[in-house]
Every structure is written in C-alpha cells, then in structure tokens.
Amino acid sequence: MSEEIIKDVIVRENEDYIINMGPQHPSTHGVLRFEVCLKGETVKYLIPHIGYIHRGIEKMCEADTYQQIIHLTDRMDYLSAHINNEAVCMVVEEAMQVEVPERVKYIRTILDELNRLASHQLWWCAFGMDLGALTAFFYGLRDREHILDIFEESFGSRLLHSFNTPGGLMHDVHPNFQKRTKEFITYFRKKLPEYDQLLTGNIIFQERVKGVGYMSREKAIAYGVTGPSARGSNLACDIRKIAPYGAYDKVQFNEILMTEGDTFARYQVRMGEMWESMKIIEQLIDNIPEGDFTAKMKPIIKLPAGEYFKRVETARGELAVYVVSDGNKTPYRMKFRSPNFSNLFVMNELAAGGKIADLVAISGSLDLVIPDIDR
Amino acid sequence: MNSISKYFSDLFKGISSLWAGMRVTGKYFVSPGQIVTQQYPENRATLKMEPRFKGEIIMPHDENNQHACTGCGICEINCPNGSIEIITDRVPNADGKLERVIDKHIFHLSMCTFCGLCVKTCPSDALAFGQEFEHAVFDRHKLTKVLNQPGSSLKKEAKK
Amino acid sequence: MSLSVFMFYLLSGIILTFSVLSVTTRRILRAAVYLLFVLVATSGLYFMLKYEFMAAVQLTLYAGGIVVLIIFSILLTHHISHRFKRPETMNLLMGIGVAVVGSGVVLATLLTHPFIASNSPELPVDMSVIGNQLLSTGKNGYVLPFELISILLLAAMIAAIIIAKKDKNKNSEI
Amino acid sequence: MSSKIYDFSSLTGSIDAALNSWMSPGLAVLTELVIIGLVFLIFYALLGLFLVYLERKVCAVIQNRVGPNRVGKWGLLQTIADLIKLLMKELIPIRKADHLLFVLAPFIVIIASFMAMGAVPFAKGLHVLDFNIGVFYVMAVSSLGVVGILIAGWSSNSKYPLIGAMRSGAQIVSYELSVGLSLMAIVVFSGTMSLSGIIESQADGWWIFKGHIPAFIAFIVFLIASTAEINRGPFDLAEAESELTAGFHTEYSGIKFAFFFLAEYINMFIVAALGATVFLGGWMPFHIGNWEGFNQVMDYIPSIVWFFTKTFFIIYVIMWFKWTFPRLRIDQLLTLEWKFLLPISMFNILLIAFLVLMHWHF
Predict the structure, then answer these.
(1) Residue C114 within any structural domain of the chain
(2) Is ipTM over 0.85?
(3) Which residues of chain B have a Cβ shorter than 8 Å from any chain A Cβ?
C-alpha cells in the first residue's frame, strides 16, 4: 500500500479520523463493523458494514421443507430462538388452516416469555459490560442460567432449541417444567431489584445513559425501529398487543412505553418488560390446559399456493415472516423481516454528535444481535 | 442559593446511589451464596445431563446386539443438513426372500445441528439422543460415526 | 573516584548527551522524550545537592507538567510519520557557531571564577523554612512576588476560561 | 511513642556497619545499592503477581464465581503461569511505529512506579528514601508515568492507542491536582511533608480519626482521585476495553504488555500505601486514647503487619469499587474533577487550615 493511501486515513487538521469498530471489537457483540468518523472524541458519523456472517438463510429456506426451516430460524436471532421458531410455525399453521391445541398455545407463550427474559437478562449483562460494569455481566448470566436449565430439561438444548414444529411442539414439556418455572419466578423477583440497585440507580450509569442517543418517535417510525428500542420513544408497536397470537389475548400485561427516547428510556423499557414477562408467565403457568402437544399434521406439508404473512414480537422487536408458496413442499420464497436489521441503521442518527463511549452505550441499548442482521 | 442546594443534593444523591451498588457487591463478597460455575473436568463423575439432552445421535442396541433400524431412509430425507447417510444391503432372510437391512448408518456429527427431526420422524424409534457432549477430536474424520454396531441385526419385533 | 563524583559525571553525561540528541533528532516526539531525560537528570543533580525540594519541583513542574503538555500537544498536532527537514547548511553552521560561542562564554566564566570549597556542614533545606520565607513580609521575604505571581496566574486562568468558553447561543445552534 | 515496636533501622544499621567493616565505604554503598535494588525487584515482581491474583479472586467472589483455581492450590500459581506465558509470547514488531519510543514506553512507566515505591515506609525504620518532602516526591515521580502512557499511545501508530493516550493524559493531568490537595490536607494537619514525620504525628491517633470530618473528606477525595490517576476502573478510560479494545497498550504484546500490566498494579499498591501512610497511620498500631492495656496489645503486632493490613484494606476498597461501577465518560470524568473534587478539596484545605489555626484538632 502506498504511503498516500495510509496518509489519507490519518488525522490531520480538518480531516476525518476514521476508526473501524469491528468486525472484531468487544462492543459490537459480534462481527459487525462500524466505520466511525471521529472528531476528537466526538462521533461525526458512522457507517455500519454488514455481511460478515451472511449465511443466506432465506435462500437456504427455499430448499428445505417447512419442518426443516425451523432449525434455520434458530440461528437468526439466537437469543429469541423459540420466538423465531414460533413465527414460522404460525405462518405454516395459518396456511394449512390448522388449529393448534390450547395447551400448545399456552406453552408456547410461556416459553416465549422465558426466552424474552433470558434475552433481556443477557442484554442487561452485555449493556453493563459495554458501560464497564463487569460485575453486572456475571449477575445477569448467573440468573439466566436458571432459565437455560429449564430449557435444557424440557428441550435438551439451552440456546438453539428447535422445539416448535408446524402444528405444535416436538414433544411435551418436562413434568418438572411448571414447578421449576415457578421457582425461577420467585427467585428472579428477588434478584431483579438487585439489578436496579447495582446499575439503574447508579449515578455514573445514569449520567452515561440519560439524554444519550435521543431517538424521536418520528425517527423510530421512519427507520422502522421496533421492539423495546422503539417503545422507548413512545411508539406503541408491541405485536403481542396489536395482533395477539398464542395465549397473549388471555393475559393481562402492560406495554411499557417511555417518552424520553434516550438510551435510559430504552433501558427502562427492557427492565419493565422483564417484570411484565414474569407477570405473563405467572398468569399462565398454573392454567396450562391438558391436551395434545401437537395438532394432527401430515408428514409432508405442502402449503397451498399463495402468499402468507405472520409477525411476532421477539425480544428485539417485530419479526415478520413472509412466505410465497407455489404448492410445493418447499417455499418458493421466504422472507424474514428481522428487527435488528432495521434497528441497526438508526445507529448513525443516534450516535452522531455523541462521544465514542456514547456510541457503545447506544449500540448496547439497541440490543443488536448480529446474525439476525445478516441472516 | 437554589443552585447551591441543588449541587449538594446532587452530590449526596450520587454518593448514596453509589453506596447502594457497593452494598450489593459487598453483600456478595461477604456471603457469595450460590456459585453457579461448574468445575467441569473435575466434576465429570457427578455431572449428569438432563435425560432429554441432545448430545449426539445414537442408535440404541439391546443386549443381543440388535437395533430397530429398518433402513427406511426417512431420517436421511428429513435431515436438513444431510448429516445422515444410510447404506443398505439386501440379504436373504429365513424364507429366502431378499430383505433390506442396513449395512451402515452413517452419522456426520460435524454437520448436525441437533434439530431432532431424525429422532422425531423415525417410524421405528431406532434413533435417540445420547448424553455425550465432549465432541472435540483432533481429526475431523472421527466425527463421522457409524451408528449401527458391527455384527448387529434388526430386532425381530420391530419388523411388524 | 568517589561514588558521588561518579554519579555527578554520569548525570552530567546524560544531560549533555540527551541535550544534543534532543536538538538533533528529526522526530519531534523523540525530542520531547530526550528533553524529559535531560530534566530528570537535572533533578538528579539537585538530589545530589540534597536540595530535594528543588528536585521534586523540577520533576513535577518540568518533567511531569511541561513535558507532558508538550507531548500532549504533539499528540494532537503531529502524525508519527512526520519528520523535520534537515536544516540548511548555513543555518546549521550558524547554530553551531552560536552554541560554541555561548558555551565558550559560560566555560570561560566558570573556569575563571574562583570557587571556594566550603567546609561548613551541608544545610538541610527544611520545607517550613521555605514556606515561611515565601510568606514572610520581613527582610528577604517573598510575599510580594508570591502574591503578584498568584494574581498573574489567576488572570491567566480567567482568560483561559473566557477563551475556552463558547458562546452559549452559538453552542445551542450546533 | 512506644518503644516496643521493632525498629528495622537497627537491622539495616547492622548490615550497613558490617558492610563498612568489610570493604571501603564507596564499595559498601555500592553493595547496599545492589542489595536494595535486588530486594526491590523481587518484592516488586512478587507483589505484582500477588496483586493480580488478589484482584482476580476478589472480583470472582464479588461476581459469584470461583476465580482461578487450577494452577496450584487455590490457583495461587495462576499468575506465575500467566507470567511465563507472557514471557514466551512473541513481541510483535509494529510496522511504521516509532520503535525506540515503542520499546521505551513500558520502561518509563515501570521506572516511574519503581521510583515512587522507594519512598514507601514499609515498617518502622524500613525506608529506602526518607526525604523531608516525601509526599511531594511521590507525587512528583508518579507524574512521570503518564509520559510513558502518552508515548506508548503515540508510538504505536494506531488509532485506538492514540485515543487512549489522549484520554489518559487529560485524566492524569487533571486528577493530580486533587490528589495533591487531599494529601496537602494532612500535610497541613501534621505540619510536615516527610512521610516518617507524618507517621510520627499519628502515634496518638490516625489522621482520619484525629482530623475530624475534613480529614475523612480528604481521604475520600484521595481515594477517588488516586484511582483515577492510576487508570483503574471506574476511571479506566485510557484502556476502556469495551470502547478502545485495550486503549494505549492495544499494540503491545508479551512482556512489554506485562510491564504495563504490572505497573498498573504496583501503582495501585503505591497509592494504597501512600493513603495508608498519610491517612491511616502507616505502620503505626491502632491506639485508643488512654487504654494502656489495649494499646500495648496492639503494639505487639509487628509494624510491618500493620502497614500491609492497612494497605491491603485500601487496595480492597479500590477493587471493590472497580468491580461495582460502570465506567465514566471522558467529559464526565473531567466534570467530576473540576466541578466536584477540586472545589471540595480546596474548600476542605481552607477548613483544615482554619481548624489548625484554632488548634481544634487533637
């Protein structure tokens, strides 16, 4: 490389100082690259570069049967694997006009919320770590372990549990499931206030996140931001409320909305959602109806020709699945509208003008999962 | 005057919030309570995976070295990653008819994503998940496993 | 040769070597670091004289303060690949000439000055003596210059704040 | 002052006398220098290893983990294993870096902390340097370390280190003020700058107790500001690993990295030792007023034990808040210094001067 090119990148007066955050960087939580232009410590603009772990999941889906697609969706947003599975299952069930048993709906909803809790716990740890509070990281992981143990007992795997199948579940939940879930809820109700003491109330933490990365409601709509990140900007976009699926129409819960639109608002939305998730689980866990764990499905599923669309609320926002079928046993086209992809590109708007440390806090507060962006 | 009182109230609020955090960590320093860390290689003897744990695909054999796999190939079709290969053979049975039996049920652990479709769809329940999770090997060829044991045969009752 | 004489020559050698290096190097940060060594070695000489207060002041103000500020400003303005141009021969010769004349004058003065070796015991410089001297109003008191310097520094600080402080209205527009 | 406390100066004095009887005075001084140097080197290395181990264990307990437990009993040899690993690592040469400064930087940092270490009074009579300006000397030499950090960041010819170095420079230069002022508080109380003099003045009670609330405030300010000065969390902006990967030592590998690492921990020890000496009475035993029996029992505990107990208490506190708090942002860091710590410590000095003038302190 010639001297000239190197010189271009390097700081001189009134010239851009560009640093690459990623693809190997502790704050991007994966192989995402931000090309950050700095002026001193201040971020002038940033360009996200994606594609480092693109695996072509949508294309792979076109070669797979509908049962086989499920395990691919695990690997998009791996922290809400169960919710992703459910989205595909629901779209197939809708196309086939299969009514899943009530038991399945209840269990799916409980698992959704457990998955959301686990995901938010991991987000909390990682957010703390981004801000330099390493102890938060371990407390979050410690409590997440309990959920993962419940998952392991029922599904046999902790993170990527292809537990849903079109029409129902792979097999019934473990007999201990209800007991352990209830134990976990009582345990976590005691631990969650500790999170607040350790981080939320902390003056350093509040100074770091309050007023940082302001996202207006209009901007959230314009960029298609969904999930807790958008709800921090007072955008009611909870699919569980808008288009209830599973057993969400049978439970009482609040959609947490914050008006501030800053990083702290997004933080508080997620903390509030943890309480709400526990509320939902408590309402459902004792009332799981008896019945079959799966509806009758043919071994080879062929969707009638047509287009099908279904959306769910993952831990990060709205996941929409769009299937075009030509009547074969594999989809003609499969499209996932993943929440992280839209949430990522608002980064420049939020981080420009802030400090590098703010950039880290903002990307933490958007809770990006990189495989979901790249798919 | 107002700003001065605000300065001091900010200061004290800040200090008390810091103290709240230090109380939490201090509490854990004095009484760590549960330590969730698994002492992994040492606790091998006591480490018990959940019964449903998806370790690897195995083919259970009974005491007569018999398995239930008829070699129908449904698992092979259902596997999304092509990690199962079945090599069948035709041997004459007691009646002299040629009958399909498996020669080798090959399982590529390196390609498996543990989705469980093979186990779920097997019509004769010949496959199951094993508890083994220490899959690391020095040679990738060791990840290709033949699930049926040498000299094994088909369970008679499984034929019906 | 006693140990203290050896130390004196060692420190002087360091001072001389790094002084020369500091003006001849073509990389600016190296010049600053060589300057740091010169200043630290100078403070070493003060320590040898048992003049610890002066040595510590030398370390804090010059080595720890001024050199850090110099390096800091180099960090902000210069890139690592930056090299000074070799000075023109005429300038170089003139510089050397001035240096030789200057050191000649100093050497001549030093060599002709009759130093009287004192046998009186070395005076430990007590901090409280210096403190009292600084704030004393009597004979040999330094209170007036001390206060004047304080006012000068205060004025400089206020000026710095005023320059650094941006216009509030202008700031909100950005 | 009780005479029961063992005075190390008799030991060092006898060594000195023995050496002088064997060889010429000049050679004796040289031998003593070599001995002191060796003792310090060994102490320095062992202390660094132990502090790294201690930090890992403390944070592990705080975080409900086990911590190092594989190498040796309770993982005691873990840091030694790490040191061996670091020694064997390749020293990666950086193309287009300023090699001389790149190699020099870790040494400057180490030498600065070594020089500061010399002034620490470990026990009664166990002093290497006892200047009458001891406090000032420690402040002066510890301010040299920042030069090493700055040139480390610059000479790496890399962007993250440069940002880290900038941050570190701004941080250390401003926090030195508060450290100085908070130490000055006790200097005003005790009327001397010499560390041994400050310890002597605490024979009848430590300054943190004797100095009323102002001394306590000075202690808190000292803790905060000195934590910032040694680049430790929550003020570890210079190496903020979630933002700058590793800050100023991103490009360093192997033993050169270990030097920075070691210097950071030794600086923590020095700061803690200084705090213990100035505020908590150094090697002075804990005495309560006129309780003769109690005081005599306390005197039986060797002074070196007292010193290390107090030092490690402060080290623990520093670790405690490192593992509790999130990291500050650079502008908040400067705000904390200039808007809170500096005015508070300045006001505190005035208050203390008033107290001393009125003879209200004990």
Answers:
(1) no
(2) no
(3) 13-15, 17-18, 20-21, 23-25, 34, 36, 49-50, 52-54, 78, 80, 113-117, 120-121, 129
